[in-house]
Amino acid sequence: MDRCLAGDLLKGKFPAAELKIEEFRGETSITVAAQEIREVMTFLKESENLQYDLLLDLAGADFAGQATYPRFMIAYLLHSTKFNNKLRIKTWVAEGSGLETVSGIWKAANWLEREAYDMFGIKFNNHPDLKRILLTEDFVGYPLRKDFPLEGRNFDQPFNVCLEEEQ
Amino acid sequence: MAESRFMTINMGPQHPATHGVLRLLLELDGEIVVKAEPHIGYLHRGVEKLSESLTYPQALTLTDRLDYTSGLSNNLAYCLAVEKLLDIKIPKRAQYLRVLFAELQRIAAHLLWVATHALDLGAMTVLFYAFRERETIMEMLELVTGARLTPSFIRIGGLAADIPDTFLPLVKDFVIDLPKRIDEYETLLTDNIIWKKRTQDIAIMSGAECLDYGVTGPVLRASGVCYDVRKAYPYSSYEDFDFEIPMGKKGDVYDRYLVRLQEMRQSNRIVKQAMDNLPEGPIAAFDALQVVPPAKEAVTRDIAALIRHFKIMQEGFQPPQGEVYASVESSKGELGFYLISDGSNKPFRMKIRPPSFVNLGALPKMIEGQMVADVVAAIGSIDIVLGEIDR
Fold first, then answer.
1. Which DSSP symbol is given to B91?
2. CATH number for the A5-166 domain, one of 3.30.450.20, 2.60.40.10, 3.30.460.80, 3.90.1200.10?
Protein backbone atom coordinates (compact mmCIF):
# COMPACT_ATOMS: atom_id res chain seq x y z
CA MET A 1 0.00 0.00 0.00
CA ASP A 2 1.20 3.48 -0.81
CA ARG A 3 2.58 5.16 2.25
CA CYS A 4 1.40 8.63 1.27
CA LEU A 5 -2.23 7.55 1.34
CA ALA A 6 -2.57 8.53 4.98
CA GLY A 7 -1.56 12.09 4.18
CA ASP A 8 -3.99 12.39 1.27
CA LEU A 9 -6.88 10.90 3.22
CA LEU A 10 -6.20 13.16 6.17
CA LYS A 11 -6.16 16.20 3.89
CA GLY A 12 -9.47 15.13 2.43
CA LYS A 13 -11.00 14.60 5.83
CA PHE A 14 -9.62 17.71 7.53
CA PRO A 15 -9.35 20.33 4.75
CA ALA A 16 -8.95 23.21 7.19
CA ALA A 17 -6.11 21.59 9.12
CA GLU A 18 -2.51 22.48 8.46
CA LEU A 19 -0.70 19.22 7.86
CA LYS A 20 3.01 18.98 7.33
CA ILE A 21 4.08 15.77 5.64
CA GLU A 22 7.73 14.77 5.78
CA GLU A 23 9.64 11.84 4.35
CA PHE A 24 12.99 10.82 5.77
CA ARG A 25 14.77 7.48 5.21
CA GLY A 26 11.52 5.98 3.97
CA GLU A 27 9.51 6.96 7.06
CA THR A 28 6.48 9.20 6.81
CA SER A 29 5.79 11.77 9.51
CA ILE A 30 2.71 13.97 9.58
CA THR A 31 2.54 16.96 11.89
CA VAL A 32 -0.92 17.89 13.09
CA ALA A 33 -2.22 20.57 15.44
CA ALA A 34 -2.48 19.53 19.08
CA GLN A 35 -6.17 20.39 19.41
CA GLU A 36 -7.06 18.06 16.52
CA ILE A 37 -5.14 15.05 17.78
CA ARG A 38 -8.15 13.12 19.01
CA GLU A 39 -10.16 13.51 15.79
CA VAL A 40 -7.15 12.69 13.63
CA MET A 41 -6.26 9.60 15.64
CA THR A 42 -9.83 8.33 15.67
CA PHE A 43 -9.94 8.75 11.90
CA LEU A 44 -6.60 6.97 11.42
CA LYS A 45 -7.75 4.01 13.45
CA GLU A 46 -11.24 3.70 12.04
CA SER A 47 -10.86 4.66 8.39
CA GLU A 48 -11.42 1.66 6.10
CA ASN A 49 -8.29 2.31 4.05
CA LEU A 50 -5.89 2.96 6.92
CA GLN A 51 -6.80 0.91 10.02
CA TYR A 52 -3.88 1.82 12.23
CA ASP A 53 -4.82 -0.62 14.96
CA LEU A 54 -1.55 -0.77 16.89
CA LEU A 55 -0.06 2.17 18.76
CA LEU A 56 3.57 1.10 18.92
CA ASP A 57 5.16 4.03 20.65
CA LEU A 58 4.62 7.47 22.04
CA ALA A 59 7.68 9.62 22.53
CA GLY A 60 8.06 13.07 23.97
CA ALA A 61 10.94 15.39 23.20
CA ASP A 62 11.99 18.73 24.65
CA PHE A 63 12.97 21.41 22.14
CA ALA A 64 13.58 24.11 24.74
CA GLY A 65 15.26 27.22 23.38
CA GLN A 66 14.20 26.73 19.77
CA ALA A 67 11.84 29.64 19.34
CA THR A 68 10.09 28.51 16.17
CA TYR A 69 8.03 25.84 17.88
CA PRO A 70 6.17 25.30 21.13
CA ARG A 71 8.43 23.55 23.61
CA PHE A 72 7.43 19.88 23.48
CA MET A 73 7.03 17.50 20.60
CA ILE A 74 5.05 14.29 20.94
CA ALA A 75 5.46 11.59 18.32
CA TYR A 76 3.00 8.73 17.99
CA LEU A 77 4.08 5.69 16.03
CA LEU A 78 1.26 3.71 14.49
CA HIS A 79 1.22 0.38 12.73
CA SER A 80 -1.51 -1.18 10.65
CA THR A 81 -1.57 -4.97 10.86
CA LYS A 82 -3.87 -5.14 7.85
CA PHE A 83 -1.86 -3.00 5.43
CA ASN A 84 1.50 -3.56 7.11
CA ASN A 85 2.77 -0.02 7.22
CA LYS A 86 3.89 2.47 9.78
CA LEU A 87 3.05 6.12 10.24
CA ARG A 88 4.37 8.72 12.62
CA ILE A 89 2.07 11.48 13.81
CA LYS A 90 3.73 14.45 15.45
CA THR A 91 2.29 17.30 17.39
CA TRP A 92 3.63 20.21 19.38
CA VAL A 93 2.47 21.51 22.76
CA ALA A 94 3.64 24.50 24.75
CA GLU A 95 4.77 24.22 28.33
CA GLY A 96 1.78 24.26 30.67
CA SER A 97 -0.84 23.57 28.04
CA GLY A 98 -2.32 20.11 27.78
CA LEU A 99 -3.12 17.66 25.08
CA GLU A 100 -6.08 15.36 24.64
CA THR A 101 -5.39 11.75 25.60
CA VAL A 102 -5.61 8.97 23.03
CA SER A 103 -5.96 6.26 25.67
CA GLY A 104 -9.62 5.97 24.72
CA ILE A 105 -8.57 4.95 21.21
CA TRP A 106 -5.68 2.62 22.08
CA LYS A 107 -5.33 1.39 25.66
CA ALA A 108 -1.59 1.13 25.05
CA ALA A 109 -1.50 4.92 25.34
CA ASN A 110 -2.38 4.72 29.02
CA TRP A 111 1.12 3.81 30.21
CA LEU A 112 2.94 5.54 27.36
CA GLU A 113 1.25 8.85 28.17
CA ARG A 114 1.99 8.37 31.84
CA GLU A 115 5.65 7.95 30.93
CA ALA A 116 5.64 11.15 28.86
CA TYR A 117 4.01 12.96 31.77
CA ASP A 118 6.55 11.50 34.18
CA MET A 119 9.56 12.49 32.09
CA PHE A 120 8.46 15.81 30.56
CA GLY A 121 5.47 17.02 32.59
CA ILE A 122 3.21 17.03 29.55
CA LYS A 123 -0.42 16.97 30.68
CA PHE A 124 -2.84 14.65 28.91
CA ASN A 125 -6.41 15.83 29.42
CA ASN A 126 -9.06 13.24 30.30
CA HIS A 127 -6.45 10.57 30.93
CA PRO A 128 -7.96 7.95 33.29
CA ASP A 129 -5.01 7.78 35.69
CA LEU A 130 -2.36 10.42 34.95
CA LYS A 131 0.41 10.02 37.52
CA ARG A 132 4.09 9.24 37.59
CA ILE A 133 5.01 5.76 36.44
CA LEU A 134 8.77 5.18 36.65
CA LEU A 135 9.72 7.79 39.24
CA THR A 136 8.43 8.10 42.77
CA GLU A 137 5.39 10.26 43.45
CA ASP A 138 7.40 12.76 45.53
CA PHE A 139 10.01 13.30 42.80
CA VAL A 140 10.50 16.98 41.97
CA GLY A 141 11.06 17.96 38.35
CA TYR A 142 10.90 16.23 34.98
CA PRO A 143 14.19 14.50 34.20
CA LEU A 144 14.11 14.32 30.41
CA ARG A 145 13.65 18.06 30.04
CA LYS A 146 16.76 19.67 28.68
CA ASP A 147 17.08 22.00 31.67
CA PHE A 148 17.19 19.12 34.15
CA PRO A 149 20.81 18.40 35.15
CA LEU A 150 22.17 15.01 34.16
CA GLU A 151 23.40 14.17 37.66
CA GLY A 152 20.03 15.14 39.17
CA ARG A 153 19.22 17.84 41.68
CA ASN A 154 20.72 17.64 45.17
CA PHE A 155 22.34 14.37 44.21
CA ASP A 156 25.08 14.92 46.79
CA GLN A 157 22.65 15.58 49.64
CA PRO A 158 21.55 12.81 52.00
CA PHE A 159 18.01 11.57 51.67
CA ASN A 160 15.42 13.25 53.88
CA VAL A 161 14.53 9.94 55.47
CA CYS A 162 18.05 9.48 56.79
CA LEU A 163 18.14 12.99 58.28
CA GLU A 164 14.98 12.39 60.26
CA GLU A 165 16.36 9.20 61.73
CA GLU A 166 19.60 10.85 62.75
CA GLN A 167 17.85 13.60 64.69
CA MET B 1 -13.61 4.96 57.09
CA ALA B 2 -15.86 2.23 55.85
CA GLU B 3 -14.43 -1.26 55.97
CA SER B 4 -13.84 -2.67 52.53
CA ARG B 5 -14.67 -6.31 52.00
CA PHE B 6 -11.61 -6.55 49.76
CA MET B 7 -8.17 -7.29 51.07
CA THR B 8 -5.20 -5.49 49.57
CA ILE B 9 -1.96 -7.40 49.41
CA ASN B 10 1.42 -6.30 48.26
CA MET B 11 3.33 -8.63 45.97
CA GLY B 12 6.97 -7.73 45.44
CA PRO B 13 9.19 -5.87 44.74
CA GLN B 14 11.25 -8.60 46.43
CA HIS B 15 9.43 -11.67 45.21
CA PRO B 16 11.00 -14.54 43.27
CA ALA B 17 8.09 -14.92 40.87
CA THR B 18 8.04 -11.30 39.72
CA HIS B 19 11.28 -11.78 37.74
CA GLY B 20 13.02 -8.76 39.18
CA VAL B 21 11.70 -5.81 41.07
CA LEU B 22 8.09 -5.65 39.98
CA ARG B 23 5.62 -4.68 42.66
CA LEU B 24 1.95 -5.51 42.35
CA LEU B 25 -0.82 -4.15 44.50
CA LEU B 26 -3.55 -6.77 44.44
CA GLU B 27 -7.04 -6.21 45.72
CA LEU B 28 -8.57 -9.56 46.56
CA ASP B 29 -12.09 -10.76 47.08
CA GLY B 30 -11.28 -14.06 48.75
CA GLU B 31 -9.01 -15.68 46.22
CA ILE B 32 -10.22 -13.65 43.24
CA VAL B 33 -8.20 -10.69 42.05
CA VAL B 34 -10.51 -7.68 41.78
CA LYS B 35 -7.94 -5.09 40.88
CA ALA B 36 -4.25 -5.25 40.10
CA GLU B 37 -1.92 -2.32 39.85
CA PRO B 38 1.70 -2.77 38.80
CA HIS B 39 4.22 -0.39 40.36
CA ILE B 40 7.41 -0.15 38.36
CA GLY B 41 10.52 1.99 38.27
CA TYR B 42 12.60 0.34 40.98
CA LEU B 43 15.36 -0.25 38.44
CA HIS B 44 15.15 3.12 36.71
CA ARG B 45 18.62 4.27 35.75
CA GLY B 46 17.74 7.01 33.29
CA VAL B 47 19.15 5.33 30.20
CA GLU B 48 17.38 7.75 27.87
CA LYS B 49 18.76 10.78 29.72
CA LEU B 50 22.24 9.28 29.94
CA SER B 51 22.34 8.59 26.22
CA GLU B 52 21.88 12.31 25.51
CA SER B 53 25.26 12.92 27.14
CA LEU B 54 27.14 10.18 25.30
CA THR B 55 28.31 9.93 21.72
CA TYR B 56 26.55 7.42 19.48
CA PRO B 57 29.22 4.68 19.85
CA GLN B 58 29.35 5.19 23.62
CA ALA B 59 25.57 4.95 24.04
CA LEU B 60 25.73 1.41 22.63
CA THR B 61 26.94 0.07 25.97
CA LEU B 62 23.78 1.28 27.67
CA THR B 63 21.65 -0.92 25.44
CA ASP B 64 23.22 -4.11 26.86
CA ARG B 65 21.69 -3.24 30.17
CA LEU B 66 18.09 -2.97 29.00
CA ASP B 67 16.94 -6.52 28.42
CA TYR B 68 19.92 -8.22 30.02
CA THR B 69 18.81 -11.65 28.86
CA SER B 70 19.35 -10.72 25.22
CA GLY B 71 22.05 -8.09 24.99
CA LEU B 72 22.87 -8.75 21.35
CA SER B 73 19.29 -8.10 20.20
CA ASN B 74 19.39 -4.74 21.96
CA ASN B 75 22.73 -3.89 20.36
CA LEU B 76 21.27 -4.81 16.99
CA ALA B 77 18.17 -2.62 17.37
CA TYR B 78 20.24 0.40 18.39
CA CYS B 79 22.79 -0.10 15.63
CA LEU B 80 20.04 -0.46 13.01
CA ALA B 81 18.58 2.88 14.12
CA VAL B 82 21.90 4.71 13.95
CA GLU B 83 22.78 3.08 10.63
CA LYS B 84 19.42 4.12 9.21
CA LEU B 85 20.15 7.67 10.32
CA LEU B 86 23.58 7.54 8.71
CA ASP B 87 22.24 5.67 5.67
CA ILE B 88 25.11 3.18 5.45
CA LYS B 89 25.04 -0.31 3.99
CA ILE B 90 26.28 -3.23 6.03
CA PRO B 91 28.23 -6.07 4.34
CA LYS B 92 26.39 -9.36 3.93
CA ARG B 93 28.72 -11.32 6.19
CA ALA B 94 28.08 -8.92 9.05
CA GLN B 95 24.32 -9.08 8.44
CA TYR B 96 24.30 -12.88 8.51
CA LEU B 97 26.42 -13.00 11.63
CA ARG B 98 24.07 -10.50 13.26
CA VAL B 99 21.15 -12.76 12.44
CA LEU B 100 23.04 -15.75 13.81
CA PHE B 101 23.79 -13.96 17.07
CA ALA B 102 20.29 -12.54 17.42
CA GLU B 103 18.74 -15.98 16.99
CA LEU B 104 21.15 -17.68 19.39
CA GLN B 105 20.31 -14.96 21.83
CA ARG B 106 16.60 -15.52 21.30
CA ILE B 107 17.03 -19.23 22.01
CA ALA B 108 18.98 -18.39 25.17
CA ALA B 109 16.31 -15.93 26.31
CA HIS B 110 13.50 -18.38 25.63
CA LEU B 111 15.39 -21.13 27.48
CA LEU B 112 15.74 -18.83 30.46
CA TRP B 113 12.05 -18.08 30.16
CA VAL B 114 10.90 -21.70 30.00
CA ALA B 115 13.17 -22.56 32.93
CA THR B 116 11.97 -19.80 35.25
CA HIS B 117 8.35 -19.96 34.15
CA ALA B 118 8.18 -23.68 34.87
CA LEU B 119 9.97 -23.12 38.17
CA ASP B 120 7.38 -20.49 39.14
CA LEU B 121 4.64 -23.03 38.55
CA GLY B 122 6.38 -25.77 40.47
CA ALA B 123 8.11 -27.78 37.73
CA MET B 124 11.67 -27.51 38.93
CA THR B 125 13.29 -30.16 36.73
CA VAL B 126 12.94 -28.10 33.55
CA LEU B 127 15.23 -25.46 35.00
CA PHE B 128 18.18 -27.82 35.21
CA TYR B 129 17.64 -29.07 31.67
CA ALA B 130 17.12 -25.65 30.09
CA PHE B 131 20.01 -24.01 31.89
CA ARG B 132 22.34 -26.70 30.55
CA GLU B 133 21.56 -25.63 26.96
CA ARG B 134 21.58 -21.96 27.88
CA GLU B 135 25.03 -22.38 29.36
CA THR B 136 26.22 -23.85 26.06
CA ILE B 137 24.99 -20.74 24.25
CA MET B 138 26.48 -18.46 26.89
CA GLU B 139 29.86 -20.13 26.48
CA MET B 140 29.68 -19.80 22.70
CA LEU B 141 28.79 -16.13 22.96
CA GLU B 142 31.54 -15.60 25.50
CA LEU B 143 34.00 -17.17 23.10
CA VAL B 144 33.08 -14.63 20.42
CA THR B 145 32.19 -11.48 22.35
CA GLY B 146 34.19 -11.93 25.54
CA ALA B 147 31.13 -11.32 27.69
CA ARG B 148 28.14 -13.34 28.78
CA LEU B 149 25.44 -10.75 29.39
CA THR B 150 26.81 -7.40 28.21
CA PRO B 151 28.44 -8.12 24.87
CA SER B 152 28.32 -4.73 23.03
CA PHE B 153 29.59 -6.81 20.16
CA ILE B 154 27.32 -5.59 17.36
CA ARG B 155 28.71 -2.17 16.59
CA ILE B 156 27.50 0.72 14.49
CA GLY B 157 28.55 -0.23 10.96
CA GLY B 158 29.05 -3.94 11.55
CA LEU B 159 30.64 -6.10 14.21
CA ALA B 160 33.47 -5.57 16.67
CA ALA B 161 35.47 -8.51 15.30
CA ASP B 162 35.20 -11.56 13.11
CA ILE B 163 34.28 -14.91 14.64
CA PRO B 164 37.11 -17.22 15.75
CA ASP B 165 37.58 -20.48 13.82
CA THR B 166 36.48 -22.56 16.78
CA PHE B 167 33.02 -20.93 16.93
CA LEU B 168 31.14 -22.46 14.01
CA PRO B 169 31.91 -26.12 14.90
CA LEU B 170 30.41 -25.46 18.33
CA VAL B 171 27.30 -23.89 16.77
CA LYS B 172 27.02 -26.87 14.43
CA ASP B 173 26.96 -29.34 17.32
CA PHE B 174 24.48 -27.19 19.19
CA VAL B 175 22.10 -26.86 16.24
CA ILE B 176 21.99 -30.66 15.84
CA ASP B 177 21.51 -31.10 19.57
CA LEU B 178 18.83 -28.52 20.32
CA PRO B 179 15.69 -30.05 18.71
CA LYS B 180 16.21 -33.21 20.76
CA ARG B 181 16.57 -31.11 23.88
CA ILE B 182 13.36 -29.22 23.16
CA ASP B 183 11.66 -32.61 22.76
CA GLU B 184 12.88 -33.38 26.27
CA TYR B 185 11.27 -30.23 27.67
CA GLU B 186 8.09 -31.12 25.86
CA THR B 187 7.97 -34.56 27.46
CA LEU B 188 8.22 -32.80 30.81
CA LEU B 189 5.59 -30.14 30.18
CA THR B 190 3.46 -30.26 27.04
CA ASP B 191 1.25 -33.20 28.02
CA ASN B 192 1.84 -32.87 31.72
CA ILE B 193 -1.60 -32.75 33.34
CA ILE B 194 -0.48 -30.46 36.18
CA TRP B 195 1.17 -28.08 33.73
CA LYS B 196 -1.96 -27.98 31.61
CA LYS B 197 -4.17 -27.31 34.62
CA ARG B 198 -1.96 -24.45 35.67
CA THR B 199 -1.72 -22.85 32.25
CA GLN B 200 -4.72 -23.65 30.06
CA ASP B 201 -7.50 -21.03 29.99
CA ILE B 202 -5.47 -18.76 32.25
CA ALA B 203 -4.95 -15.06 31.50
CA ILE B 204 -6.64 -15.19 28.11
CA MET B 205 -6.16 -12.24 25.77
CA SER B 206 -7.95 -12.08 22.43
CA GLY B 207 -6.11 -10.78 19.40
CA ALA B 208 -8.10 -7.53 19.36
CA GLU B 209 -7.40 -6.93 23.04
CA CYS B 210 -3.69 -7.51 22.51
CA LEU B 211 -3.60 -4.94 19.71
CA ASP B 212 -5.55 -2.49 21.83
CA TYR B 213 -2.97 -2.77 24.61
CA GLY B 214 -0.07 -2.62 22.15
CA VAL B 215 1.12 -6.09 23.07
CA THR B 216 3.72 -7.54 20.67
CA GLY B 217 5.90 -10.61 20.47
CA PRO B 218 4.98 -14.18 21.44
CA VAL B 219 2.04 -12.98 23.56
CA LEU B 220 0.42 -11.31 20.55
CA ARG B 221 1.13 -14.26 18.27
CA ALA B 222 -0.28 -16.70 20.83
CA SER B 223 -3.55 -14.79 20.41
CA GLY B 224 -3.56 -15.47 16.70
CA VAL B 225 -2.32 -12.15 15.29
CA CYS B 226 0.49 -12.58 12.82
CA TYR B 227 2.84 -9.70 13.50
CA ASP B 228 6.55 -10.37 13.59
CA VAL B 229 8.98 -7.56 12.75
CA ARG B 230 11.28 -10.07 11.05
CA LYS B 231 8.58 -10.72 8.44
CA ALA B 232 6.70 -7.40 8.48
CA TYR B 233 9.74 -5.14 8.09
CA PRO B 234 12.68 -7.45 7.37
CA TYR B 235 16.00 -6.12 8.64
CA SER B 236 19.53 -7.45 8.46
CA SER B 237 18.70 -9.80 5.55
CA TYR B 238 15.93 -11.72 7.31
CA GLU B 239 14.22 -11.89 3.92
CA ASP B 240 16.92 -14.39 2.85
CA PHE B 241 15.93 -16.92 5.49
CA ASP B 242 13.24 -19.52 5.39
CA PHE B 243 11.29 -19.71 8.65
CA GLU B 244 7.75 -19.77 9.92
CA ILE B 245 5.97 -17.70 12.52
CA PRO B 246 4.41 -19.96 15.14
CA MET B 247 0.92 -18.88 16.15
CA GLY B 248 -1.50 -19.79 18.88
CA LYS B 249 -5.30 -19.79 18.87
CA LYS B 250 -6.68 -19.17 22.29
CA GLY B 251 -4.18 -16.72 23.73
CA ASP B 252 -3.82 -18.33 27.13
CA VAL B 253 -0.65 -19.08 29.10
CA TYR B 254 -0.39 -22.53 27.52
CA ASP B 255 -0.48 -21.12 23.98
CA ARG B 256 2.27 -18.67 24.85
CA TYR B 257 4.34 -21.58 26.07
CA LEU B 258 3.75 -23.52 22.85
CA VAL B 259 4.55 -20.48 20.69
CA ARG B 260 7.85 -19.88 22.45
CA LEU B 261 8.91 -23.53 22.15
CA GLN B 262 8.09 -23.47 18.44
CA GLU B 263 9.99 -20.20 18.08
CA MET B 264 13.09 -21.88 19.45
CA ARG B 265 12.81 -24.55 16.77
CA GLN B 266 12.41 -21.89 14.09
CA SER B 267 15.34 -19.90 15.48
CA ASN B 268 17.36 -23.08 15.32
CA ARG B 269 16.52 -23.35 11.63
CA ILE B 270 17.61 -19.75 11.04
CA VAL B 271 20.90 -20.30 12.88
CA LYS B 272 21.56 -23.34 10.71
CA GLN B 273 20.83 -21.42 7.50
CA ALA B 274 22.96 -18.46 8.58
CA MET B 275 25.82 -20.81 9.34
CA ASP B 276 25.53 -22.81 6.11
CA ASN B 277 25.19 -19.77 3.85
CA LEU B 278 27.61 -17.49 5.67
CA PRO B 279 29.22 -15.30 3.00
CA GLU B 280 32.87 -14.29 3.01
CA GLY B 281 33.80 -10.64 3.20
CA PRO B 282 34.35 -7.79 5.62
CA ILE B 283 32.59 -7.76 9.01
CA ALA B 284 31.96 -4.02 9.02
CA ALA B 285 31.29 -1.21 6.56
CA PHE B 286 34.93 -0.11 6.46
CA ASP B 287 34.13 2.19 3.52
CA ALA B 288 32.10 4.41 5.87
CA LEU B 289 35.30 6.11 6.98
CA GLN B 290 33.75 8.55 9.42
CA VAL B 291 31.77 5.90 11.26
CA VAL B 292 33.63 2.62 11.47
CA PRO B 293 37.04 2.72 13.15
CA PRO B 294 39.80 1.07 11.08
CA ALA B 295 40.92 -2.45 11.90
CA LYS B 296 43.70 -2.83 14.42
CA GLU B 297 46.29 -3.95 11.85
CA ALA B 298 45.71 -0.73 9.90
CA VAL B 299 46.07 1.39 13.03
CA THR B 300 49.50 -0.03 13.78
CA ARG B 301 50.75 0.57 10.23
CA ASP B 302 49.13 3.77 9.01
CA ILE B 303 49.23 7.17 10.77
CA ALA B 304 46.07 8.37 9.00
CA ALA B 305 44.18 5.31 10.25
CA LEU B 306 45.49 5.94 13.75
CA ILE B 307 44.21 9.53 13.70
CA ARG B 308 40.87 8.44 12.32
CA HIS B 309 40.54 5.75 14.98
CA PHE B 310 41.33 8.30 17.68
CA LYS B 311 38.78 10.80 16.34
CA ILE B 312 35.98 8.25 16.16
CA MET B 313 36.74 7.02 19.67
CA GLN B 314 36.96 10.53 21.12
CA GLU B 315 34.35 12.51 19.21
CA GLY B 316 32.18 9.93 17.53
CA PHE B 317 30.55 11.09 14.31
CA GLN B 318 27.88 13.54 13.30
CA PRO B 319 24.85 12.05 11.57
CA PRO B 320 22.56 14.33 9.56
CA GLN B 321 19.59 16.03 11.17
CA GLY B 322 16.46 13.94 11.19
CA GLU B 323 14.56 11.29 13.03
CA VAL B 324 14.36 7.56 12.50
CA TYR B 325 12.76 4.55 14.10
CA ALA B 326 14.21 1.08 13.75
CA SER B 327 13.00 -2.02 15.46
CA VAL B 328 13.82 -5.69 15.81
CA GLU B 329 11.83 -8.66 16.98
CA SER B 330 13.51 -9.34 20.28
CA SER B 331 12.59 -12.36 22.37
CA LYS B 332 9.98 -10.27 24.23
CA GLY B 333 8.39 -8.42 21.32
CA GLU B 334 9.08 -5.38 19.19
CA LEU B 335 12.12 -3.55 20.51
CA GLY B 336 12.45 -0.17 18.84
CA PHE B 337 14.74 2.81 19.00
CA TYR B 338 13.45 6.23 18.01
CA LEU B 339 16.34 8.63 17.48
CA ILE B 340 16.16 12.36 16.92
CA SER B 341 19.41 13.84 15.67
CA ASP B 342 20.19 17.56 15.72
CA GLY B 343 23.35 17.05 13.68
CA SER B 344 25.69 16.83 16.67
CA ASN B 345 27.67 13.79 17.79
CA LYS B 346 25.21 12.93 20.56
CA PRO B 347 21.60 11.84 20.21
CA PHE B 348 19.22 14.75 20.80
CA ARG B 349 16.63 12.27 22.00
CA MET B 350 16.70 8.51 22.20
CA LYS B 351 13.34 6.92 22.94
CA ILE B 352 13.38 3.22 23.56
CA ARG B 353 10.25 1.25 22.80
CA PRO B 354 10.62 -1.58 25.27
CA PRO B 355 8.36 -4.55 24.54
CA SER B 356 8.16 -5.61 28.20
CA PHE B 357 6.94 -2.19 29.33
CA VAL B 358 4.03 -2.13 26.92
CA ASN B 359 3.23 -5.83 27.45
CA LEU B 360 3.18 -5.39 31.22
CA GLY B 361 0.53 -2.70 30.75
CA ALA B 362 -1.84 -5.49 29.77
CA LEU B 363 -1.21 -7.48 32.97
CA PRO B 364 -4.15 -6.00 34.95
CA LYS B 365 -6.44 -6.93 32.06
CA MET B 366 -5.10 -10.50 32.11
CA ILE B 367 -5.43 -11.20 35.81
CA GLU B 368 -8.46 -9.25 36.97
CA GLY B 369 -11.16 -11.77 37.76
CA GLN B 370 -8.68 -14.65 38.00
CA MET B 371 -7.41 -16.55 41.02
CA VAL B 372 -4.49 -15.07 42.92
CA ALA B 373 -2.39 -18.20 42.30
CA ASP B 374 -2.66 -17.56 38.55
CA VAL B 375 -1.05 -14.13 38.85
CA VAL B 376 2.32 -15.86 38.90
CA ALA B 377 1.45 -17.81 35.75
CA ALA B 378 0.33 -14.61 34.00
CA ILE B 379 3.46 -12.64 34.91
CA GLY B 380 5.64 -15.50 33.77
CA SER B 381 3.76 -15.85 30.50
CA ILE B 382 4.43 -12.22 29.48
CA ASP B 383 8.17 -12.76 29.95
CA ILE B 384 9.12 -9.43 31.45
CA VAL B 385 12.57 -8.11 32.14
CA LEU B 386 12.61 -5.20 34.54
CA GLY B 387 15.85 -3.78 33.19
CA GLU B 388 13.98 -3.00 30.01
CA ILE B 389 10.76 -1.82 31.66
CA ASP B 390 12.40 0.64 34.04
CA ARG B 391 15.33 1.59 31.81
1. P
2. 3.30.460.80
> What Rg value do the Cα atoms of chain A yield, rounded?
19
The pLDDT assigned to A166 comes to 59
Q: Which residue of A has its CA nearest to B213?
A: A108
Nearest to B352 by CA among B92, B67, B112, B41: B67
* CATH number of the CATH domain containing B89: 1.10.645.10
Alpha helices in B121-224 (DSSP H): 125-145, 167-189, 193-199, 207-212, 218-222
Q: Which residues are CB-contacts of A44 (< 8 A; sequence separation ≥ 6)?
A: A6, A10, A50, A52, A78, A87, A89
Mean pLDDT of B327-333: 91
Instruction: Give the β-pairing of A99-100 and A124-125.
Output: parallel
Say how far apart CA A152 and CA B281 lie, in whole Å. Answer: 46
The Cα A81–Cα A52 span in angstroms is 7
3-state secondary structure A9-32: HHHHHCCCCCCEEEEECCEEEEEC
- C-alpha–C-alpha distance, residues B167 and B383, integer Å: 29
**Backbone dihedral region for residue B352 (phi beyond 0: left; psi -120 to 50: alpha; all else: beta):** beta
SS3 A49: coil
Give the separation between CA A104 and CA A99, rounded to whole angstroms.
Answer: 13
* Distance separating alpha carbons of residues A81 and A103, to the nearest angstrom: 19
Please give, rounded to a whole number of angstroms, the shortest distance from the CA of B3 to a CA of chain A: 24
Amino acid at B25: L
pLDDT-derived band at A2, boundaries 50, 70, 90: very low
Beta strands B7-11 and B23-29, pairing class: antiparallel
Distance (Å) from the C-alpha of residue B40 to the closest C-alpha of chain A? 6
Selecting from A29, A108, A143 the residue whose C-beta is nearest the C-beta of B213 gives A108
- pTM for this structure? 0.89
Domain assignment present for residue B9? The answer is no
